[in-house]
Design the sequence.
């Protein structure tokens, strides 16, 4: 059966919690029929209202791919690292920043350079590199003055991966494609959305195992797993619940939407 997608913004919805659940959701002020499925594409930018819409639809029996729980989990970068570390996966050393920051503590447990990240962010936004102790102290003082309640994490800088990383795209735990992202100029961030270049990268057994294990562990139907080069091995950088596919389609012969819709047809029995 053909899938006819309809693109809607969360702001178009109004919710009410009633016993007549089937009429408890409005779109543009009018009751609407329930869709066969929902494919949320907000990722780390999912707001409380967006989550409320997704959860409401889930309670009405609408399959959401990915689920609100999985999306909410990976949105929190620290919590994601905690889950992965618990399963003995090769994560980067990560620390939750507590303002005012003890610079000596950071130097002892992580060292410099150090990567500074907002707890919630996407497409390389909210990610900074403090090259040394002095620059780190200056940046943390700026954060403290401008937003003392900011949620910040600190991660070890993997020198082997400076300006490059891997993005592995998975659907239901199966690796669909892998690309290397390389930064533009001397930028340490390799995001395609930040002007970086991309190229196909062979899927080794280690890459396949890591991406599959991580996707399943985070309960993601669709995932973008970011890996950092660390000598002959890899470390996990981040996990994304709504990975873009423009970059990966430009360097790998794959139609990501077609693969996603095929998975949905199989999962929901839409034949």
Sequence:
């Amino acid at each position: 059966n053909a899938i006819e997608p309809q693109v809607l913004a969360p702001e178009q919805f109004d919710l009410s919690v009633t016993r007549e659940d089937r009429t408890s959701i409005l779109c543009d002020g009018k009751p609407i029929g329930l869709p066969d499925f929902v494919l949320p594409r907000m990722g780390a930018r999912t707001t409380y209202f967006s989550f409320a819409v997704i959860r409401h639809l889930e309670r009405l029996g609408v399959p959401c791919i990915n689920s609100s729980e999985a999306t909410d989990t990976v949105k929190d970068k620290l919590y994601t690292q905690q889950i992965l570390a618990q399963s003995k996966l090769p994560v980067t050393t990560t620390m939750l920043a507590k303002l005012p920051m003890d610079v000596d503590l950071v130097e002892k447990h992580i060292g410099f350079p150090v990567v500074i990240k907002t707890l919630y962010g996407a497409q390389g936004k909210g990610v900074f590199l403090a090259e040394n102790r002095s620059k780190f102290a200056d940046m943390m003082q700026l954060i403290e003055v401008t937003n003392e309640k900011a949620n910040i994490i600190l991660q070890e800088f993997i020198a082997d991966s400076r300006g490059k990383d891997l993005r592995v795209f998975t659907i239901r735990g199966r690796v669909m494609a892998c690309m290397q992202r390389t930064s533009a100029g001397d930028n340490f961030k390799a995001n395609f959305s930040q002007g970086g270049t991309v190229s196909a990268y062979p899927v080794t057994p280690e890459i396949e195992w890591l991406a599959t294990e991580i996707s399943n562990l985070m309960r993601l139907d669709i995932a973008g797993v970011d890996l950092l080069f660390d000598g002959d091995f890899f470390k996990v950088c981040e996990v994304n619940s709504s990975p873009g596919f423009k970059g990966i389609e430009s360097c790998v012969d794959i139609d990501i939407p077609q693969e996603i819709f095929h998975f949905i047809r199989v999962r929901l029995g839409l034949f």
The two ends are 5 Å apart (CA to CA). The helical segments are 48-59, 68-75, 77-86, 103-109, 133-146, 205-217, 246-251, 256-268. DSSP finds eight helices and twelve strands in the chain.
